[in-house]
Write a structure and sequence with these properties.
1 helix, elongated, single chain, 58 residues
Length: 58
């Protein structure tokens, strides 16, 4: 993991965005996609997932 990857991961330490469906604060997570493992924000209330492509190298 290089310095750019660490900086991107540190961005996840800040509060997540508000869920567009229910306005609950979303939390950082990971999800398997057709492209491989991707980072995402997941809503703990309604389980909506917003994928953040390109954070983790393949």
């Amino acid at each position: 993991m290089d310095d750019d990857d660490l900086e991107e991961l540190e961005a996840f330490d800040e509060p997540g965005p508000a869920c567009p469906a229910c306005s609950t604060e979303m939390t950082p997570d990971g999800v398997d996609t057709a492209e491989g493992l991707e980072s995402c924000h997941r809503c703990p209330r309604c389980k909506l997932v917003i994928v953040v492509p390109g954070l983790w190298p393949h």
